[in-house]
Design goal:
mainly alpha
Amino acid sequence: MSGLIIAATGGISGALCYNNPNFQGNMWVGYGSMLLAFSLIFVAIKNYRDKYNGGVISFGKAFMIGLYIVLITSTVYVIIWLIELYNFFPDFMTKYVAHVLKEAKAHGATDAELKQQ
């Protein structure tokens, strides 16, 4: 479930950010979806403890369940981002770098600072 939440909101926020000339996505939607997705770790561990382990679970077992959920969710996030990047936004980094340099120049960055950026 957490992988699906991250995939859905990641796709939507990626498209919104890419199509915005200021590269501003909805930060609150992104963080909120991650918070929701990763809070399901607690729900999953509690569900496992109550339904399959007789109401008792060791810290080690709960930690491993949580770790596996995080690994699966993070893998789904990376796969979705790679699919978006290579298939829908192949020039994202070129456009983003140009935007960052333009913003730095607008804020008075020197040539040395621009080169460092």
